[in-house]
């Protein structure tokens, strides 16, 4: 068991946005080593069918598992929405955590009146998983799942504030956050949207709770490691290994939107999947 606990945590995402989840895990569990795999050759996942997303998620996760990991963390919302059951069936005995349940729990707890909007990719919205998970913990909630595809490219372009970002955010959010039935909670159900949190706060005001799954997911990881006696006992800072399936330079450049540290492109490994 002790040797197993020294293995890294595998984190999988369609690309670079999952670094928001890696950052939260890093902050909460600095002793854990992490292997991050971003499937940059095949992103975006958020516009693809359930079948394709599941197939991609399985391939990427098999690769992570082949390195030896003690836990698989699916940072990608779209894969968490479509592929979690398939991944759990594929790797029995390996704990597999997605971001949907932790995000849903965070929104259910943060919303004052239970009027919750989940902003996500088209494919995640189609899966219907966020409303189901929120209603599970808060049965009287009114949940609207809102596809916001433009937010993904906007964030990757570094447009996290300013007039263009504001206009697009208003286009999506104004209809649901104005009037007597206005929502009181916005859940970012996509890896990229936490980068827009300051903009959301500014546009929606202090009455609206703005939440995401990253920190709640890190808490779930911590609890699970403790429960299964898998926390790294070394007491040394963990390492981070980063893998992509294409364009490591772009990955390193765009990563600046998501993490406050520099990613050295020379340390980003490129692998092939499929
Ligand atoms: N990582 C995806 C998600 O959280 C967003 C980017 C993509 O569509 O691949 O759903």
TrEMBL record:
Metabolic or biological pathway: Cell wall biogenesis; peptidoglycan biosynthesis
Broad enzyme group: isomerase
Molecular function terms, GO-annotated: glutamate racemase activity
Catalysed reactions listed for this entry: L-glutamate = D-glutamate
Keywords: Cell shape, Cell wall biogenesis/degradation, Isomerase, Peptidoglycan synthesis
Pfam families: Asp_Glu_race (PF01177)
Presence of keyword Transferase: no
EC number(s) reported in the record: 5.1.1.3
Record keyword Isomerase present: yes
GO process terms (BP): cell wall organization; peptidoglycan biosynthetic process; regulation of cell shape
Protein name: Glutamate racemase
Species name: Magnetospirillum molischianum DSM 120
Gene for this chain: murI
